[in-house]
Amino acid sequence: MHDWITDNLSAAGGTYQTCIAGIPFLARKQGLVTVTCDPRNVEHILKARFDNYPKGPTWQSVFHDLLGEGIFNSDGDTWLFQRKTAALEFTTRTLRQAMGRWVNRAIKHRFCPILESARLRAEPVDLQDLLLRLTFDNICGLAFGKDPLTLSPDLPENGFAVSFDQATEATLQRFIVPEPFWQLRKWLRLGLESDMSRSLQHMDSYLSDIISTRKLEDGNPHDDLLSRFMKKKESYSEKFLQHVALNFILAGRDTSSNALSWFFWLVTQNPRVEEKILLEICTVLVEARGELSSSWFDEPLGFEEVDRLMYLKAALSETLRLYPSVPEDSKHVVSDDVLPTGVHVPAGSAVTYSIYSMGRMKFIWGDDCSEFKPERWLSPDGTKVEGHDAYKFVAFNAGPRICLGKDLAYLQMKSIAAAVLLRHRLTVVPGHRVEQKMSLTLFMKYGLMVEVGTRDLRPILEKVKAVAVEGSPTINGGVALAKDNGHEGSTTDHQLAAPVA
């Protein structure tokens, strides 16, 4: 579907309108959808006329049972209050340290041992499933301080995770089916609506137990988000606290795992990029820990080491440009408006901006827009990541609702990617089909089946030594990069990663 929308937008010059309800007098508003990928329109929607383009009643109705009035399903004062509260927490270093602990613990004790076991047995693994379990455990730990242990050697089924999946799948169906129909199904408890009702009950019970336990442990310090909200002077209801946790799980689970799945797939298709990433990782480790030794593998990369991986960050950004975790987003039009490209949008209609299509438009990214080229994110000398216009790359949203967890997402993705590539050479199982799944986030329909091989670092280390001897142009003081694809941006790496309050 996303490629079909991309073709339509390309043929229409970046914006078109379509009617999804052919009912007289209704079609002009509730049935009209304006679809765009033009950065000028996106900036207008997400920033210039922010108040005129809220989530709207349709979105809120669809998500209400799952997310309530949480930060991702609210507008106006309700959203602003939660945004300010969350922003104060996301700017603290302690939250970054907490994420680092959860990620490194899972990498060292579960993720890497599972991959090594698969290598020894010469059995393929579904990398998408492993990454989904890893990010789920991490975000649960960060959100409410409880590790559900879904990433364990026997890959157990977790009731909360299963319920969460069923609830999000039912929510997607609500987007597809007209509201009167899914409301009737909900009332009659039919199909996925019946599953959703049971799933929500299970999730409520699970989270209620956590909140009750946390209240009894009031004297014990915790650094998870739930505890931080509970420590505020305001008295929050248990339901509100549940929705806080669920909103952050929705934001931090599927998005990072999806991005990493597409990243690993792209890397397997682009050996040149894989080699540059390895050169960078090895250069950083040589400088920080000395030449190849057990210390490289005893512990995952630390904060300072991860922060120096500029080319890896560029490769992850390039992945999100081509395969954004949230491929489309929609807004409700409050008042009649005219977009910067001249398109009239009436009150009551909807506007959809295609993040997936934006990464594939020649008028935005040039003739090479379909190529996987991390160099487009680097400064000309290859020493830092330089962002593009904030409304050309909206994988983390933009404007007042820009993702608060962008820093944490990059920290997690870089840590996991570095740990895997340093230890293993991945190859996609011959004949495995990599296709997009129709879902709220950009899953792979059949997972990502890979064979796990041994990583031989000797050729990489020889190149690192050669670079050090020759004194070639480097990235972060180590890895020589080709200059042929560098593009100058407008935002420094520090600005790109800065927390937004």
From TrEMBL:
PROSITE patterns: CYTOCHROME_P450. It comes from the Eukaryota. Its cofactor is heme. Heme binds at C403. Its main location: membrane. InterPro entries: Cyt_P450, Cyt_P450_CS, Cyt_P450_E_grp-I, Cyt_P450_sf. It is a single-pass membrane protein. It is found in: Membrane. One of its GO terms (cellular component) is membrane. Keywords: Heme, Iron, Membrane, Metal-binding, Monooxygenase, Oxidoreductase, Transmembrane, Transmembrane helix. GO terms for biological process: lipid metabolic process. GO terms for molecular function: heme binding; iron ion binding; monooxygenase activity; oxidoreductase activity, acting on paired donors, with incorporation or reduction of molecular oxygen. PANTHER family: CYTOCHROME P450. Belongs to the cytochrome P450 family. This is Cytochrome P450.
